[in-house]
Amino acid sequence: MGVVFYMTSVSSSLAIKKQQQKIELVLEGQGIPYEAVDISVIKDAKDKMRQLSGNDKALPPQLFNGDHYCGDYDAFEHALEMEQLQSFLKLEGGEEGGQAGADAGASAEPAAEAPAEEE
Questions:
Q1: Is the torsion defined by CA of 106, 111, 112, 113 positive or negative?
Q2: How far apart are CA 23 and CA 27, in angstroms?
Q3: Sign of dihedral through CA atoms 96, 97, 99, 105?
Q4: Coil, helix or strand for 90?
Q5: Distance of alpha carbon 98 from alpha carbon 87, whole angstroms
Q6: What's the pLDDT tens digit per position in 77-88?
Q7: What confidence tier does 92 reach under pLDDT thresholds 50, 70, 90?
Q8: 35/6 Cα distance (integer angstroms)
Q9: Looking at residues 52-59, what average pLDDT do you find?
Q10: What are the φ/ψ torsions at residue 8 (nearest 5 degrees)?
């Protein structure tokens, strides 16, 4: 299984386009592999997205881990702010703040520790 990102390449909504772009940038930036499913191109993808999310009016973007619903953009944004992206995406190791939090801390901590070690 892996992260499945339901999106659309055809939308008149600027908000949806920006939300999808942010999700892609974050997933790629975190090195999280994902499958993008374009509901405007793949027949029955919109129906499957709505069925799996349990919301017959759901609009993209929607995130899943396989067939397990993770949430919509607002839930994604909340998880990102709380540094719980891995847990939100139901990825291994996401129990303790997730890889997003670990990566953010890892990049800041060595810079702070390095000068202390050199002295």
A1: positive
A2: 6
A3: negative
A4: coil
A5: 6
A6: 999 999 999 999
A7: confident
A8: 8
A9: 97
A10: -135, 135
Q: What is the DSSP letter of 101?
A: H
pLDDT at 105: 37
In the sheet that 62-65 helps form, which strands lie side by side, from edge to edge? Answer: 34-38, 3-7, 62-65, 68-72
Cβ atoms within 10 A of the Cβ of 81, count? 9
**Quick one: CA torsion of 95, 97, 100, 104, rounded to 10 degrees?**
-150
Residue indicated by tokens 């881990």: 65
116 pLDDT higher than 60: no
Q: Which two tokens stand for residue 118?
A: 């050199």
